[in-house]
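Homework-ish question, so no full write-ups if that breaks the rules, but can someone show me the predicted structure for this set?
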Amino acid sequence: MDTAEIIRNFALDGNAVSVKPLGDGFINDTFVAVADSGRRYILQRKNKNIFPDVPAMMDNIVAVTEHIKGKVADPMRETLTVVPALDGKPYWEDQDGEFWAVTDFIEGSKTFDIADTPDLARQGGLGLGHFQALLSDFHKPLAEVIKGFHNIRWRFVQWDASIAADKAGRVKDLATEISWIESRRQRMLDFWKMVEDGILPMRVTHNDTKLSNFLFDAATGKVLCAIDLDTVMSSTSLNDVGDAIRSYANNTFEDDPDYSKVGIRFDMYEAYMQGYLSEVKDFLSDSEKEWLAFAPLYITYEQVLRFLMDYIDGDVYYKIKYPEHNLVRTRSQETLLESMEAGYDRMKEIVASLL
Ligand code: ATP
Ligand code: MG
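A: Not a homework solution, just the prediction itself:
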């Protein structure tokens, strides 16, 4: 793959004079290209295994970023800008069938790897809330770039099939874990039914709300915009909050085998919700306000189910570092969910105090 050749297929301002890899992203391959005009660009090879329909995904990104541009003071810095290919499409397909896309490099920005202080959690919440606020009047349906994402009804279809197939012969040793899942099945389906029935409204969801997916202004230190828009879709925006809390507000890392360390940190929870709700409380529906505190439980449950299902399937989806890794992940996230269940009333009180 010759990135210097690939970048020539895009409508840059000037000609590219260098293309260099940037970091080591989990999903895509990312490069920085510099043009002779001095402008810099982000070039990415999109991961086809995760995103089967890159053209539809890029259409989503263009629709969402165009909408945001119409509403902000500095449209080139407050959202991504997709640079089209020379044929006008928002991506370019190479001879090997790989898809590439280019965005403007947002200068004077920085990212943080992890949210480890309440102040960063607050900024992360602000960033997500602001993104949702800018898109609160966006009503076009978006393509479903990953099928069944956060749809627990679909996950149970997969789950029931996994248990029935019992590919790795592990089901017999997992009675406790399986009944843990089953005892909460109906409660989780009831939540999802509110999405299906429109009680919880469809909004634009980001679906990868970790802190490194927000750019901060290097000069002011304030959160600037959401990036990494590959996974934008239409769903309940509560799940974006739930997923953020699952990672921001855990006392420790996702697969900590020392379960005594696992649990929700209320200082991080409160800070995130403070930032988030300061941006969204005026337009969230009553049903969203009512169910906001439940979303972290729903998302953590889904994650437990997915880890356990992968263990049952013989470790085919998540990369494992040791044989019991998926079982440890399962139990670690079970512990997190149990601490959220125990703290649910407190989470609801925190939400109520911020509305
Ligand atoms: P990951 O899976 O780790 O989230 P990814 O492959 O999805 O990574 P991105 O999140 O899109 O890739 O980008 C990786 C990093 O590149 C970002 O965290 C950010 O530091 C930088 N970056 C991406 N787009 C821009 C941009 N338009 N301007 C400036 N920096 C950017
Ligand atoms: Mg990212």
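Now go work out the reasoning yourself. Hint: The radius of gyration is 21 Å.
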